[in-house]
Amino acid sequence: MEKLLYIALFAPLVSSLFAAIFAQRKKMQLVGIVASLLIIISFLASSALLSHLLSGGAVVTANLMDWIVVGDMDVKFGFMVDQVTAVMMVVVTLVSAVVHVYSNYYMEHDEGFNRFFSYLSAFVFSMLVLVMSDNFLGLFIGWEGVGVCSWLLVGFWYYKPDQPREVNPSISPSWAANEAFIMNRIADLGLLVGIFILYWNLGTLTYSEVFANLDKLSGGLMVAAAIALFIGAMGKSAQFPLHTWLADAMEGPTPVSALIHAATMVTAGVYLVIRANPLYSQVPDVGYFIAVLGTFVAIFAASMALVNRDLKRIIAYSTLSQLGYMFAAAGLGAYWVALFHLAAHAFFKALLFLGAGNVMHAMDDELDIFKMGGLKKVMAKTYLYMGVASLALAGIWPFAGFYSKDTILEVAFNEHTYGIWFVLWLTAGLTAFYSFRQVFLVFEGDERYKKYGFHPHEAPNWVFIALLPLLVLAIVFGWWKEEFMEFVTLILPPYEMSEETHHVAWILILLTSAIAIGGIVLAYIKYANGLKRDPKIENSFIYKLLQNQYYIPVFYDKAIVKPYAELSDIAWKEIDLEMIDATVDGIAKAIEVTGDKSREIQNGNLSTYLRWMVAGFIIITILAVVSVVIK
Amino acid sequence: MSNILTVLIFFPLVAGLFGFLVSQKSIRVYGIAVAAAEFLLSLWLWFSFDMKNAGMQFVEKINIIPEFGISYYLGVDGISLFLVVMTTFMTLIGIIGLSIKKDIKNMIITLLFLEVAMVGVFVALDVILFYIFWEFSLVPMLYIIGAWGGEKRLYAAIKFFIYTFAGSLVMLVGILYLAHLYQSTTGEWSFALTDWYKLQMDLDVQKWLFWAFFLGFAIKVPMFPFHTWLPYAHGQAPTVGSVILAAVLLKMGTYGFVRFSLPLFPDASVSAILPIAILAIIMIIYTAMVAFAQKDIKQVIAYSSISHMGVIVLGTFAMNVEGIAGSIFLMLSHGIVSGALFLLVGVIYDRKHTKLMDEFGGLAKVMPTYATIFGIMTMASVGLPLTIGFIGEYLSLAGFYKVSPIMTILAGTSIILGAVYMLAVLKKTFFGPITKEENKSLKDLNAKELTALVPLVAIVVWLGVYPKPVLAPIDTSTKALVELMHQKAQTKEAKATILVSKTKEAK
User: What pLDDT was estimated at residue A270?
Assistant: First the structure.
């Protein structure tokens, strides 16, 4: 079993290094094939570990070697595959494998083909380190590793120039990459502080030991640790107010968006909260805060998706919104539900993004859905795939999202947090609306793209075969809800619905389904028969507000980025050069001048010497008199 | 080889003198050979070093002036061992990467003399001997900046010299007073540091002496507000000068804190935590901002050095094993990484004779290998786990967390602000379109540059993944150091702050 663990973990690393050897060469198909195969191997090993655990096997652990051993700190490269990790591993490697295969198609004409696979596999490795580590510092390795890979991949087309925000809201790939990295670093400081708190109070960073000794933490420290760790989670999972990077990260190639910015990396924050559930269970107030924030982000992000015209940004906002759902579930203590939605979301969202990749390929990288329309004639298969993914996202029976999202709503109801329930319910309607607004604007209605001279074409058949696993899972994954619950609650706390909730469950389901279907119908009425734009609405304040992301990016620019740059400039020019350094030079100058002046005392002129003598005599006399008087 | 330390000190000196006889043409090979031999000797020192022994090893002691207790007294422990190895290694790398054409013979001989001083500082256990090496190190650097520097080289060189020299003089007064104190307490003269360790001092005396030493070390580090000589020195120094300055010379200051300030004046050190931590936090945040404002790549790296040195100082004054060992590791990693970054800036300067970021842009396309290595070093500089930069920074901050959570959070902004200025450099220099026609034909790294840089990349990854061979001896000696401090500490506050082991404390 240990062998399987290492195969699953290191196959992606080998893949990355192999591709790195050829990173500067022209495209080699071999690199893409080898990389994909290695990721598939990693997926198979992960699946074997999962089936081992499913058949009642013991948790698999492995200790590779010492890492940081100083003072009382003893951190090893330790790995552990329990039920939660196994689920994460299979989700990560499955989506990764599909994305790797798909990238052979999507990146086929890119000059950075080999480099791309190197980065992509490195990401998979980092993500596996993140979920497989048995301690917080190991998690932090993966945490930072995925951050760097995300930085590399968002900025993959680094040579593109900066554009004004009005032209391109994410400015440029390299800008977006830096924004993502820095914003994540802000959150990482929180995570580090959480680690420090645990280390100094419990003397260990290993999960099992930390959670076994939680009672040694005082209440205040427990809250502090929970908050600090959650700040880390907020960065990776792009929760408000650290959310702006995620939409801008869409500057990366679409397979990257599918893998990193939808299915896996952004869920790392949710994973952290699930993993630290013994801690969060002890501090329900923090949990409640997490749930409220998640709920807010759910509707906040959904609202921005309502008016957006950018194919990828719409999906990015929906990711943000769904992450909010996951945090709502985790915050309310339903950890397994959060994990269930995490997995379901990974499948259908990756499918949706890769479908969007097909569309982009067909449309020469055009992203404006107002310029598309009627694509179903040429892209029927992509329509089907994206349609299924959107149905799952909208939470329509019997697709995966129906089961996972509905359970979250039930949890909110069960906790008597009706406010949360209502907002999430409303968001379900918005989700259905914006998802199908996008689908219909792209595939139905008049063929607006002809006006712009596009010649769309469908992706080759093998691409659809490669996407098939995601398609199937987007449909059937929800059917395993009971089995999933039984499996992961072996280590996660079970979550029981009250009798009362059971009674009204079918009403809740009906309500949710009604609003979701309502959203789809509304989208159909408005957009399926072509695009009818209403300048009155588009010029309204709310529309503009949503379109400009509530002006938050502009606000960050004006309130943080610019002042920081200006303050830095002042620190350098006014303080460092004009004050501190000028003082140093001033002292030196003063000494020089004093020396220069006092040279005159010894100019060899006797009468000068006499004058100085008299002056000196007078001064000494005065001093003597004064000192006597004072005494 | 029981006198390996003497060999390590004097081999470059002798070889340097013989260098005058070597012809201009073959001096390069000669220099590399000597530096390589010296590096191998230091490796030998490492491999024959007893990792379990926390005390001084390879000790040599010869009385020179017995009447005053001045002796030729050398030794290494886990704290100084790797500083020696890093010194010989970075000197070798510096000589390999040398791109100077003018007077290359003098340059190499100067570098060898500088190596003598640097190794001497780290292995000297007699304080007079230490002081001689300490001051002697100024001369070759003065010459390197003054003779091979940029336009304002004389101003920069003299500023560097006088500023650090002034600080050292105050330290000398402290040294002499301490010797006098030792004599009046014990009845005999001694300048042996290990003897001084045993000396118990009044709190007031400790405080005065602490600040006297502090001034000498702080200017060297350089700590805010004594740092303004450094940007000039870096701005004017040739590449190799900056490499050695950042990698080794600055570490002499922080080494001084660990070797002198902490064990000699434990109570004063503890009571100085607050002001020093405030200075360190200002260093971290303020110089990171100044670094962000720079337009010249080299100045960014120069200011970033100050910022990172702030983390080192903070870790040193954490007064626990985690923090001190972390700060020592960070000295090494910062030496490797900042040395590499200065070499990298030198590469571009050799090609275009400018270091202004505005002159570049899009270089990743024309110089992919260069961009890759620059990227790796950037990631090491911002403390990415599994690179060498993470371990020291993490441990330093973790250590100081025990002293003050709030101040640690302030200092922890280093991981954010470091990313801000380094990523800005990457973006402006390597990303975006190539805006200047002449940059389209820039050549990627040549064999010489690769020879200098690839070993650094290897170390960055190796010690990031597997720091144990270095961290274990540091840990052993740091534990001994902290125990000594704990034992010597007189005030309750100091006893409580100097933390040998928290598990022990719990019992």
Answer: 96
Question: Which of chain A's residues have a Cβ under 8 Å away from the Cβ of B227?
Answer: 580
Q: What is the 3-state secondary structure (H, E, C) of A350-379?
A: HHHHHHHHHHHHHCCCCCEHHHCCCHHHCC
- Predicted complex ipTM: 0.94
Q: Please report the pLDDT score of residue B503 as a whole number.
A: 52
H-run or E-run covering A601: none
Residue numbers of A between 187 and 216 with CB closer than 8 Å to B: 188-189, 192-193, 195-197, 199-200, 203
Taking each helix axis as running N to C, give the angle between helix A418-443 and helix A284-307, from 0 to 180 degrees, rounded to the nearest 10.
Answer: 30
Our CA angle for A311, A315, A318, nearest 5°, is: 145
The ranges assigned to domains in chain B are: 1-236, 272-465
Report the alpha-carbon distance of residue B149 to residue B167 in Å, rounded: 24
Long-range contacts (CB closer than 8 Å, 24 or more residues apart) made by A564-570: A564/B289, A564/B292, A564/B420, A565/B292, A565/B293, A567/B289, A568/B289, A568/B290, A568/B292, A568/B293, A569/B293
- For residue A89, give how far its alpha carbon lies from the nearest alpha carbon of chain B (Å): 21
In chain B, residues with a C-beta closer than 8 Å to the C-beta of A68 are 391, 394-395, 467, 471
Contact (Cβ atoms closer than 8 angstroms) between residue A12 and residue A125:
yes
- Angstrom CA distances, B312 to A170, B216, B254, B334, stand at 37, 17, 7, 9
Amino acid at A587: I
Asked if A24 has any chain B CB less than 8 Å from its own CB, the reply is yes
Distances (CA, A) of A292 to A235, A242, A323, A329: 17, 16, 12, 10
pLDDT tens-digit map of A18-43: 999 999 889 999 999 999 999 999 99
Which tokens belong to B54? Answer: 């926390």
Side-chain half-sphere exposure of A565, counting CA atoms within 13 A: 8
The pLDDT of A243-248, averaged and rounded, is 94
Nearest to A71 among B321, B385, B465 (CB): B321
**Closest CA–CA distance from residue A172 to any residue of chain B (Å):** 8
Question: Distance of CA B169 to CAs A590, B120, B132, Å?
Answer: 19, 19, 12
Q: Mean pLDDT throughout A283-304?
A: 95
Q: Which helix (H) or strand (E) holds B328?
A: helix B321-352
Q: Is the pLDDT of residue A150 over 70?
A: yes
Question: How many residues can be counted in chain A?
Answer: 631
* Mean pLDDT across A562-584: 92
Is residue A72 within 8 angstroms of chain B, CB to CB? Answer: yes
Q: Tell me, what's the pLDDT at A602?
A: 77
Residues of chain B with pLDDT under 50: 504-507
**Which of A290-304 are b and which e, b meaning 16 or more Cβ less than 10 Å from the residue's Cβ?**
bbbbbbbbbbbbbbb
| Contact (CB<8Å) B289/A567 | yes
B501 vs A333, more confident: A333
Residues B392 and B318 sit within 8 Å (Cβ to Cβ): no
Q: Count CA atoms closer than 13 A to B383's CA, side-chain side.
A: 30
Average pLDDT over residues A527-539: 86
What pTM does this model have? Answer: 0.94
Q: Mutate which of B395, B431, B465 to disrupt the A interface (most A C-beta within 10 Å)?
A: B431
Contact yes or no for A189 and B415 at CB 8 A? yes
Listed residue (B199, B194, B169) closest to B184, CA to CA: B199
Contact A568 B293 (CB under 8 A): yes
Substitution target from B155, B160, B227, B228 for chain A, most A beta carbons within 10 A: B228
Question: Of all residues in chain A, what percent are helix, strand and coil, respectively (each to 5)?
Answer: 75, 5, 20
Query: How many whole angstroms separate alpha carbon B156 and alpha carbon B173?
Result: 26
Q: What b/e sequence results for A254-285 when a residue is b if at least 16 CB atoms lie within 10 Å of its CB, and e otherwise? A: bbbbbbbbbbbbbbbbbbbbbbbbebbebbee
The residue among A226, A245, A107, A112 whose CA lies nearest residue A176 is: A245
